């Protein structure tokens, strides 16, 4: 018995190391350093504040993705360039700051808080926290439904669209990271449990909304990425953690089943005749990589699946460093054909950003 225990203690770390190695040693052109550098500098080159009339959520998470990559790559020049691009928002371009009146706009605070984390400049903290706080501060002109959500302790911006579970989670989680105030992570976790209970189906996937019974790729990607982000910060003693971890693992199991032979996922995940879509696929890949590295998923099972997905994703980046086959911004609609027919763009920030998340997750120790 003693010899068997000793054997297991010796062999298990080796097996884990072998599985983890699936997420390292990438061939030239596929390393996270190369891909991250390409896409982060592409954002710097392409995104001009002077041309903007507003800042959308896709701009925000691509910007923050580039920042996270720059920080982990220790590219101080890139950090400074991205910071400088932001700073006109305190002065000449202050008028294009997102209003604090919608779930898609409040998530802008996550970018401010990422800048604060890196630079320790209090201007970014104050601005970011204002977006996190107002997501839970009922406005004077609130509608009846918004008042109902607020009375139950949820964000008044709740609408039960799966997109929200990245938009709400990311700003509240970032606020917790920089302040240590438990209220922010508890808000996000309580909200996540609500969405899990309302929208996750028996197969582990999520409807776009209660009245839209389709498993849209990027929508499910928001859930996958949101849970991965939240679980990394959620304290072990949180009463919400077991429920969220259960929902996350259930989803990952289903995603592994629906991963195509090419390594990606389709625009409608469960429809084999639908087209392969890159933004949702990259979000699922991020969730896989994070789960393996955090020990929530079995490395020997999900490590190869994550690697297969990453190797399939990289060739979709063209010579201009733009990602192809990205579904455009998509509202909910109770029509299967609607999702099949969504336009596909190249270089759309919905696709650029999750690739950057993957590079950071691959580089993290």
TrEMBL record:
Source organism's superkingdom? Bacteria
Q: Which GO terms describe its molecular function?
A: unsaturated rhamnogalacturonyl hydrolase activity
Supply the alphabetized keyword list.
Answer: Glycosidase, Hydrolase, Signal
Q: Which residues form the signal peptide?
A: 1-19
Provide one Gene Ontology biological process annotation. carbohydrate metabolic process
| Pfam annotation, one family | Glyco_hydro_88
Q: Where does substrate bind?
A: 104, 163
Active site location: 104 (nucleophile), 163 (proton donor)
Quote the EC number.
3.2.1.172
Q: This protein is called what?
A: Glycoside hydrolase family 88 protein
What organism is recorded for this protein?
Answer: Bacteroides faecis
Where is the organism placed in the taxonomic lineage, from the top?
Answer: Bacteria, Pseudomonadati, Bacteroidota, Bacteroidia, Bacteroidales
